[in-house]
Amino acid sequence: MDTLRKRALSIDTTSAAAAGTDQREIKASREGEDEGAVVEEEPVSPTGRLFREPHFRCHIVSVFGLGAPVDLPAMRAGVAATLARHPRFSSVQVLDELDKNARPKWVRTTVNLDDHIVVPALNPAATSANPDKALEDYVSSLSARPMDHSRPLWELHVLDFPTAESAAALALRVHHSLGDGVSLLSLFMACTRSAANPDALPSLPPAGRAGPVYALPRPQLAAGALAVLAVWVLSFLVLAWLTLVDVVRFFATAASLVGDARTPLKGAEGVEFRSKRFVNRTLSLDDVKYVKNAMSCTVNDVLLGITSAALSRYYFRKTGESDRKNITVRSTLLVNLRPTPGLHTLASMMESGKDNGARWGNQIGYMIIPFHLAKHDDPIEYVRKAKKVARRKKSSMESVFTYWSADMIVKLFGIKCAQLTM
Hints:
The protein is an alpha+beta fold. It has 13 helices and eleven strands. The longest helix has 30 residues, at 225-254.
């Protein structure tokens, strides 16, 4: 029998070094079926690698309010049967030490729930005196803590004390390299079960059209074939023109040729490395839908208008400037470009512990969204402007271009160059 050729794989602990994590090694066989277990490998996507760079170090932090105190044994059993069996949630990133040009790959490992389920020892006096602030303080602290990259990159923090809106809370922190927010949200839903039938997945409204946010309008065929063709060509030209304008603006922003005016909303140099504070405000979804239906827009349009109104009130209160002044600031909005697997597909993935052909990862583009800071006598005016901005962005392929350009930079010039351009 020929000698099996083996390669040494080391866990990529670049980000974990700050936490004092010891670097360990995994030995895996590349060839031969006679060896016991075969290590499953999958390359880390370019976006996933970018999220691991020190300049980004992106985490997704989600807080779940519960209607009853935490049943820790039942929760552990549920996590072991769902999240801990998902391929991404049971893998670590490793590098081939024998290949200088190696890229990190996902390799399956054993999940120790004690490493991922955290029950912090909080000050009872603080949680009793102001539980909402204690929750905010703890969740905010998670943004500054490094993760141990020698084990799967997720943590579930149990905050078993009542707040104004819940009997207890769970804070789930996931490294962004595991997947985008849309995929993770679907995964969380697939981990739950219907209250009426504990064995059934929750029922969701019918899914809308999957794919990118842009779309060409479909005119009525009764208008005639020639009119249909003319409208389609015109719509295509509008889409191409608006995309070109957004791409030029994107390059001008990236090259610092254009920028926002200095305001209290603009972060100083190095703000991305500072601690973040998560402050929340609960809104009635029924109220949001009422405005949506009255304005013939979307829930996101209403939320965009609310955000614009809140930023405007904060700005003018902070600066004391005249309310007649109209200022525009810009923000980056991430857009999911990949169809999301259904709940049954994700549930099957966790039951089997295999990918099952489901597409997973980070396929994210982004667009630059303007916020108009102004005072309006009619609060609905903020929603009108937000609806106009959203409709304009939906008629552009800016998010597709930004995803494609970032992907090309990573492939052509490497991850370090992509980090500098972001």
